[in-house]
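Supplementary Methods. Inverse-folding protocol.

Structures were first reduced to a discrete structure-token string of length 643. This string, shown here, constituted the complete conditioning input.
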């Protein structure tokens, strides 16, 4: 590459279009610029050494670089056949690059102007206009000093085709056209109301300078360009603003330019659009002053104002009005009041002790708060469900977990992160602090939109629909009773799932908490284990009047044909390791222990049992002997007995 570079610099030539096309098909490399201006006696292939140029080349690679995947992704914007029609009157010829395929077309279009450019600003003005017209072209092709390699399959339009140079594009200090501003130069049009005496600006004051000074002129200009828009939430405001072309707002047409936030000797900033979200980003790549932000962060930094004030300024610039319906205002107030209660943990601790004992871990509060914030941000898209006034929104588990990463340290349980979040969400639904909504209760269009969203993001399961109920005093009393029931029935957070709810509270409650798993059957093994555990429990209750969990587990025999096969099926950690008899014994004990935790609440309800920690008084009343642990020390386990 360095040898090619040196040869090009040492051997500048004038060449006819026909000869250029012929040489390119031979695989030769060229740069369209004459680079003959020496600086301090040296010559380099950079724009500082640029002299003149008459040819511009445009690359169409039909792809974009995905920063997450760290690779180029195919995104066909123009085919070879479409290009033949598009450039037939403007370009001299085009040819396929060596990486071109029928499935992924990549080609280069070669233009010539009616005269050479000798002013690089004038050249940049015209290349920027081309990029404005063809934004899907490779932006690096507009670098005056870059290499262009040869290729194959020449398509000739007309060697005499010429684009016309417009010298009026250049103005003092930069260049512009009537619709597209560049190089930070802003021309104040006569049709715009003149600024007040306190807001006087120089004719060539940059957009960035006007934004920084909160000048009314930038507001007049944006208002004259962008039509008024009415939205119903701040989230919609943010989404709309982030899709505003930053080139227009900042008056910069160049793809690479000097950073507006600090002085520098060479351009390090650029503006680009994320092809997935449509958001426009400003990025400075310098090591000393790096910065990345959307129009919102750029405005905050330029104006040195806080977020609310910057947002008001942008809303004024772009004619944005927030207008909410009475129902949306009511829902917003409901969510805000819920958040106020959730933030008063000391009050919850005092007023709702059973609830507090369940939500004592910070993660539980974080999950509940985050769901409220998601609802608040999507207030404009909330809808009434058929039979209540509740407001529905949807959020996937992946999205919820991503949101929680900002506040929660998952390193301690990274492998079980998703399972923990799912368990917490289900517990909150049980407590009626959160509701999962069955899709049968929702409008078809709304459900279909969520399905498309799930497909777009490659989610395996349907996105979950939620509502947040009002945490008024009457409702919170019911929540407290549910929390007490949870404790009284021996239900545990670690084992909380659909099976526990089904075996303890019945199918209707299981369908309320897990609507997406309605009518799902338990595995035959789980049913067998639960059945045998219940038999053992009732046997000892009938014979002795009391029983402990340990006694139930130790005296329950399971008829499992192939224990090792079940172990490998249920525990991927075993993989190819050898399973010993001791391993089987431990696994069976743990299986029975977990299943007993899931049915013990149902045993209490269905058979009128009471539970109490063993004490001297209980031993005397029920004639229960003193228990001992593995070390031979006295033990006081929980005892279940008939009332």
């Amino acid at each position: 590459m360095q040898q090619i570079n040196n040869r090009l610099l040492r051997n500048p030539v004038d060449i006819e279009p026909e000869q250029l096309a012929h040489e390119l098909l031979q695989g030769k490399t060229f740069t369209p610029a004459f680079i003959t201006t020496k600086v301090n006696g040296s010559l380099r292939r950079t724009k500082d050494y640029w002299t003149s140029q008459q040819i511009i080349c445009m690359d169409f690679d039909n792809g974009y670089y995905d920063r997450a995947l760290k690779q180029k992704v195919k995104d066909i914007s123009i085919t070879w056949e479409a290009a033949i029609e598009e450039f037939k009157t403007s370009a001299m010829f085009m040819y396929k690059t060596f990486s071109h395929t029928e499935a992924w077309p990549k080609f280069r279009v070669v233009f010539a102007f009616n005269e050479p450019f000798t002013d690089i600003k004038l050249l940049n003005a015209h290349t920027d206009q081309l990029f404005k017209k063809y934004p899907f072209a490779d932006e690096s092709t507009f670098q005056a000093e870059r290499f262009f390699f040869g290729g194959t399959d020449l398509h000739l339009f007309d060697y005499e085709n010429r684009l016309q140079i417009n010298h009026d594009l250049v103005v003092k200090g930069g260049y512009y056209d009537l619709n597209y501003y560049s190089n930070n130069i802003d021309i104040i049009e006569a049709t715009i109301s003149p600024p007040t005496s306190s807001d006087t600006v120089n004719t060539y004051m940059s957009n960035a300078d006007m934004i920084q000074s909160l000048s009314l002129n930038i507001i007049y200009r944006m208002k004259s360009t962008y039509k008024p828009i009415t939205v119903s939430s701040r989230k919609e405001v943010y989404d709309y603003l982030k899709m505003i072309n930053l080139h227009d707002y900042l008056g910069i047409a160049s793809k690479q330019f000097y950073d507006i936030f600090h002085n520098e000797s060479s351009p390090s900033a650029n503006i680009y659009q994320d092809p997935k979200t449509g958001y426009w980003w400003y990025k400075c790549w310098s090591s000393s002053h790096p910065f990345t932000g959307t129009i919102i962060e750029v405005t905050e930094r330029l104006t040195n104002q806080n977020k609310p004030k910057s947002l008001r300024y942008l809303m004024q610039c772009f004619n944005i009005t927030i207008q909410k319906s009475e129902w949306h205002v009511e829902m917003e107030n409901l969510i805000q009041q819920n958040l106020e209660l959730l933030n008063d943990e000391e009050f919850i601790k005092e007023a709702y002790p059973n609830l507090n004992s369940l939500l004592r871990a910070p993660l539980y509060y974080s999950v509940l708060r985050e769901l409220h914030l998601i609802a608040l941000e999507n207030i404009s898209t909330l809808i009434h469900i058929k039979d209540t006034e509740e407001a529905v929104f949807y959020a996937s588990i992946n999205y919820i977990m991503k949101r929680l990463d900002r506040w929660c340290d998952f390193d301690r349980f990274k492998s079980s992160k998703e399972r923990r979040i799912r368990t917490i969400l289900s517990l909150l639904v049980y407590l009626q602090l959160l509701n999962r909504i069955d899709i049968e209760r929702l409008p078809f269009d709304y459900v279909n939109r969520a399905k498309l969203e799930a497909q777009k993001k490659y989610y395996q399961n349907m996105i979950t629909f939620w509502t947040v109920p009002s945490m008024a005093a009457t409702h919170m009393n019911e929540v407290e009773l549910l929390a007490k029931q949870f404790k009284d029935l021996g239900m545990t957070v670690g084992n909380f799932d659909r099976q526990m709810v089904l075996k303890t509270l019945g199918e209707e409650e299981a369908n309320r908490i897990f609507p997406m798993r309605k009518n799902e059957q338990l595995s035959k093994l789980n049913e067998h284990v639960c059945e045998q555990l219940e038999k053992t429990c009732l046997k000892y209750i009938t014979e002795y009047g009391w029983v402990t969990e340990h006694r139930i587990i130790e005296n329950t025999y399971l008829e499992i044909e192939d224990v090792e096969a079940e172990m490998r099926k249920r525990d991927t950690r075993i993989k190819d390791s050898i399973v010993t008899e001791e391993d089987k014994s431990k696994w069976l004990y743990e299986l029975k222990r977990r299943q007993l935790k899931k049915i013990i609440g149902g045993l209490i309800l269905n058979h009128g049992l009471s539970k109490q920690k063993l004490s001297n008084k209980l031993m005397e009343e029920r004639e229960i002997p003193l228990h001992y642990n593995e070390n031979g020390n006295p033990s006081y386990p929980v005892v279940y007995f008939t009332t």
